[in-house]
Amino acid sequence: xxxxxxxxxxxxxxxxxxxxxxxxxxxxANVITRYVFHIPLAFTEEIEVNxxxxxxxxxxxxxxxxxxxxRMLFLYEKFSVKLKKCIDLVxxxxxxxxxxxxxxxxxxxxxxxxxxEITSESLNLPQWIYTFCIPxxxxxxxxxIAQTGWFMMRGKAQ
Amino acid sequence: xxxxxxxxxxxxxxxxxxAPIAIAIAIPSFLVIWIGDLGLxxxxxxxxxxxxxxxxxxxxxxxxxGFILERCGISExxxxxxxxxxxxxxxxxxxxxxxVCVFFGGVSGSGPADAAAIGxxxxxxxxxxxxxxxYSAALIAAAxxxxxxxxxxxxxxxxxxxxxxxxxxxxxxxxxxxxxAGLSLLIPAVWVARKKGYGAKVEGIDVKTETLASxxxxxxxxxxxxxIILGGLYGGIFTPTEAAVVAVFYSLFLGLLVYxxxxxxxxxxxxxxxxQTSAIVMLIVAxxxxxxxxxxxxxxxxxxADSLMGASDNSWVILVLINLLIFFAGMxxxxxxxxxxxxxxxxxxxxxxxxxxxxxxxxxxxxxxIGQFTPPVAVNLYVTTQLADIRLEDTxxxxxxxxxxMLIALAVVILFPALSLYIPRFFGLM
Lengths: 158, 430
Fold this sequence. Notes:
The structure holds two protein chains of two kinds. By secondary structure, chain A is mainly α. The longest helix of chain A is centred in the middle third of the chain and has 36 residues. Chain A is globular, with a radius of gyration of 20 Å. The radius of gyration of chain B is 21 Å and the shape is globular. At the A-B interface, helix 1, helix 2 and helix 3 of A face helix 1, helix 2, helix 3, helix 4 and helix 13 of B.
């Protein structure tokens, strides 16, 4: 049970770590095949480049949970505890609206791509397979934002 | 016009109250695209295309390589070697701090992380040798800032992607200015250390290996890392992405087989942290791209470029104005956002005066590096003062001479373009 809870709390981290190692492995395999066997694996490029977007969505979600996004604290640190909490909650609400919009727009984009049957450049895969990461990633991020907001309101946040 | 003002003012207000940079940059962009009827559907494909670019693939890989190198025990070994070589004299540790920071700039691509890794070891050691905490925090923040100019550099990768400039050429161009920036810090650092007698009592850093030769043998594989990464890039053998992945596997080889300091659990944590750090960078990249798209579509960026060029016919006046602008922007923002917001304004000016984009990239990045440790905001100082457990204000006196010294280095790099352009030309990269 404890393992299940741990996984629920960290699963984007696990996925992100796996994805990053696969990307590094592919890129390294590419170097080896290019210099040793002189066979470039050009098709891996498309997968790696599109994985970057997945990597960004997963990492952003984890960063919301850990509240580790890059921010400027110069003025913020001079505010009172109450004001800090207010600002944090308002910013979380803004972020929530932002990723809701992005997720919906991403989903509409995906529907368009399915309708027009757009395919990717080098592998000729349906483009929507890649675009899928925007709405899916946004749902994950929204969940983490809501979770962080909930903890913050109950005064549990670090 | 009023939308343009809203775009910039909204961004700065959000930034000032402490919004994450990516959020501060995205919210006004989304609103301007919505209110200005620029077409909301552009947002999703623009977001996607902003991240899914081949040159950007090098970013998570360089971040990963940097994290592995930092945690596989190379920092201790390199510091130990540098300490035995030059550290055991008055002001010696200050020289060690600067050289190690510049060296780490040569294997990883971002500033605050380097400052944190090196500061964690050196700040306590410097304190034990009688260095004032404010001085150590200031010095490591300043020296750590050179990481964004010393290749490989994430900032230069982004600059290359925005301006369509060759990243290997930029990496070659950053080498001499990066060293120069480090050297410029030596003067105020050593002068103050000698005057105040810092490092007169030699103890503190625990010397594990007794002789210089054995400490060199220990550090050797680590010292080789920048040679492999940069040698492969300059020689035209590797693309930046390939150099980054070679760096990842080289550092894994060190951590798992040579030093045997990394466990699989460490490796998992490194992957998690590297993923998060790259995501924070890439999210800024994606939203900042949207910001500059919105800004140029409503015409505010062209307008700013025109008014900047209208300020004078003299290219030197414009150059000074641009540098002042970058300097203040760099105090408030990270290098990536500055590039996305200001480069669309500067690119027409570059074309107009015929400035070399490689040289300009180096100038802009070096200038941004100075902003990273210039009070009162200073990201890097923020990191090192936390390590030293002091207030930001305690570093101000010590940091001002360092800011001035690096500004002089910047002036030299501006006045002598050959300092930036000699190496890329020598290797035929531009």
